[in-house]
Amino acid sequence: MSDFGFTRRMTLAALGAALVLPRAALAFSASQAEALIGKAVADINTIINSGKSEAAMYVEFEKVLVRYADMSNIARSVLGPPARSASGAQLNAFTKAFQTYVARKYGSRFREFIGGKIQVNSTQQINSIYDVRCTAILKGEAPFDISFIVHDKAGKFIDLQIEGISLLKSERAEIGAMLDKAGGSIDKLTATLA
User: Fold this and answer.
1) DSSP conformational letter for 23
2) Strand 156-162 and strand 144-151: pairing?
3) Rounded CA gap, 158 and 160, in Å?
4) How far apart are CA 183 and CA 35, in angstroms?
5) What is the pLDDT of residue 161?
């Protein structure tokens, strides 16, 4: 990561990115958002502590991303303004490549989280989003705060903040730099990520 360094906390942020909520009704309560994050956290903890090889965990992590994440909106946001001029096929290809990239990038650090856990603490509604506050407890490291940002109408996770650092903003900067390196070509960027 450019300014933040590739740390265990940022890796956990990506793990959390997989904790996207399933599509819900038009509105749901803070307790429902909290319960759904709790279930999603349990799914990720199961993958981390499964004893599977890293390669197998990448596959499982990507499945969780696909199942729970609103990856099309996350990918559009990460791509930024160029997403507006991209074709539907380009956006679909970029989204698939981006979710694979995220699964590999952060999944490569899974072994560091074995035996750790994420504990859901509370949820606060702020307009149309829920801030589900959690604590990450890892072996050999002081506990730290995580916030899962869930959009009410989408019923899905839209960002993750680790001690105030937004995963979405961090990845937007990283992907922007990669797009610049690809000469502004979304197709070349997509090929790089795949």
Assistant:
1) P
2) antiparallel
3) 7
4) 44
5) 87
